[in-house]
């Protein structure tokens, strides 16, 4: 009856059904109350119609079409790299974030110590190589990451033909890249947000100096499956304990576990229990937009951490007179008051 | 706009004419992607990609197409793919990072945020129906065509989706008394 009444309220019933619903509702007060609710839904949702749109949208769309057309003429088999690159960068950051999160993991005994050591970290450098396989194509990128508590980071994402650099100082976000416009868009569309999330977390009271809070670390820890210890290993002159496991996606993400696979390897320093190296492999089943068949998107990452707790200076790219250095631009990722409230609201839940 | 004429022109290589299609549908597609992703920046790119894909599809086929349905279908797929990716990332961060679009500061901004927020609590497969029907004003049969399902399925999704929407809206309003 509810489906019928909902469709009736929307004027979506054929005559016979409409008349039936009408007659029924006339004598049914719960249905009348429901119809009043439906009217309110309609009114509220229709109010979203007045959303303003960016003034440069048409121009941007036409530029993209013409660029793709030009590329297709030059390389008929090539899909616009502009469409591929953001995915790669987002994937890289995803893996970095996971890896950093996993940096705080441990396994009974050793693992608690590793967690404590990680929680005490004030700075680190990391180098990560990421390989993404998507629809039969392979993309590679290298990332250099620097972090200094509480809220400074620097990330350079290098690909075979391009490099983009980000610096975050407090609320300030700077970007420099060979393809500035493109990089800028990436920052706005994805990377910036994650970096914001990282620094946002780092600024919280529960700061760990890394991507995630202690509470989140414990949550990850509780989600590890099939943890097993492998033979000890030597990493950059440090004796390490080696562990391997998988992530219980369903437990953490409340998403279907059917379309994801993972493998995690950790190298934990035997002396100070910091993480020296991590390898993460993730596979996600996605629909290929061309063939519409399910294909595995794979992301594999190899991260090495060094200069742990060493002084790392991260400066804004600003001259002594306060001007932004050539090649850099300031990205406006500051949240408006309204958005801040919204974020606070979400956090409280 | 005479869509059939525009499509013919595009097929003869007059790319600029496609601008008329963009002009006609950009607001609707942008809004739709915004609703589906709940994201501030992504719709700009996703809308461009939608038009790019539509343009490429027009060149690849010579069949008669319902442009509107086609654009919404591409936009929905783009948004859902983006959404999935974001969900994955959100998971990694263990936080609800759904970010609301910044609306202009108007007296009813709070109300709009509450509505946007409640809509984002509706799962995507039903949110798409609510957005297309209530915000974009499409009929159930048009939505069915876009999503490739039957009208009855749309009816059920709208009915269930609006319940979820209202529950989310009321619980927010109930907890937000400041």
Structural class of chain B: mainly alpha
Strand % of chain B is under 5%
- Number-wise, the strands of chain A total 11
- The top-level CATH class of the largest domain in chain B is Mainly Alpha
Notes on the protein architecture:
Helices cover 39% and strands 31% of the residues of chain A. Chain A is of the alpha+beta class and 349 residues long. Chain A has an eleven-stranded antiparallel sheet with strand order 6-7-8-9-10-1-2-3-4-5-11, with helices on one face. The radius of gyration of chain A is 25 Å and the shape is extended. The relative contact order of chain A is 0.12. The model of chain A is unreliable at 74-108, 179-219, 333-343 and 345-349 (pLDDT under 50). By secondary structure, chain B is mostly helical. Chain B has two domains: 1-102, Rna Polymerase Sigma Factor, Chain: A, CATH 1.10.1740.10; 103-178, Orthogonal Bundle (Arc Repressor Mutant, subunit A). Chain B is 74% helix and 0% strand. Chain B contains eight helices and no strands. Chain B has helices at residues 3-11, 18-37, 42-60, 67-93, 109-120, 124-135, 140-147, 151-175. Chain B is elongated and about 55 Å long. At the A-B interface, helix 1, helix 3, helix 4, helix 5 and helix 7 of A face helix 2, helix 3, helix 4, helix 5 and helix 6 of B.
Write a brief structural summary.
Chain A is an alpha+beta fold.
Features:
A: alpha+beta, outer membrane lipoprotein receptor (LolB), chain A, extended, B: 178 residues, mainly alpha, Rna Polymerase Sigma Factor, Chain: A, Arc Repressor Mutant, subunit A, 2 domains, 0% strand
